[in-house]
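Feature request, filed as a ticket because there's no other form

It would be nice if the structure record came with a short human-readable summary line next to the tokens. Right now we just get the raw output. Example of a typical job, pasted below so the devs can see what we mean:
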Amino acid sequence: MIQDIDIADLKKITELIQVKYGYDFRNYAMSSFKRRMLRILELKSLSVESLLKKLQEQPTFIDEFLDELTVNVTEMFRDPGFWRIIRDEIIPGILLNHKQFKIWHAGCSSGEEVLSMTIVLKEMGILQDVQLYATDLDTTILEKAKQASYPIKNMELNEKNYIRYEGKGSLKDYYKEENGKAVFDKSLLQNVTFRKHDLVKGEVFNKFDLILCRNVMIYFNQTLQNEVLKKFHESMFKYGYLAIGSKESLIWCEVANKFLVVNNEEKVYKKIKD
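Raw output as currently delivered:
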């Protein structure tokens, strides 16, 4: 078992990935990036040298590598109080200005958050009026998100979250159990566009009324967080909303004065200046 990996080795790995594949991990928070790399080396039974060789010589390995590197721990209706604010304050705030609007789930992982949002919109009777974009760096996890199929054992926690959110029925109204999986009704995803997008290097690709990027930026250093928050600001309509993770903040970033705090506890902000 590899006990440690030094900065020089991490640098070699990030530089190879950037030059060969175009992904830039140089501004990821070093401590969490290091933990991930140690996990990958242990999981794949590789040394640093053999990992570098594999990345260099086997281009197909990059998808597997990204799948392990990116964080894919999520659940439906995570932080139920947040979802109540989305339903009771944020969406009604958007609807004051226009009936049809756009939402971006940045770093959508395996899709539980996207599915939660579509259930919120369906129960509000407005799902057909909303365009949702779900993006992630990891193409393997995007494919999982498109399937909207999760282990049935995960549903106990998801159902508890939904009950605390105070939904209209039960999550069971939205899925069928098949071969140990909860397979959700595909009509929930009818207005969702899944696409690969790199928050580090990706372009601004649309304008949104609501952007959710929760618990993604904790893995970036401050330089990268600042760049990503500028990108979000540029991707939003004036008076649009931004939701980030409870341990994240935009108080210190360059665009902080262009946002108003809507809910400090749940980290929801409103764009007030272009």
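Something like this underneath would help us a lot:
Residues 7-69 form one domain.
The first strand starts at residue 101 and ends at 106.
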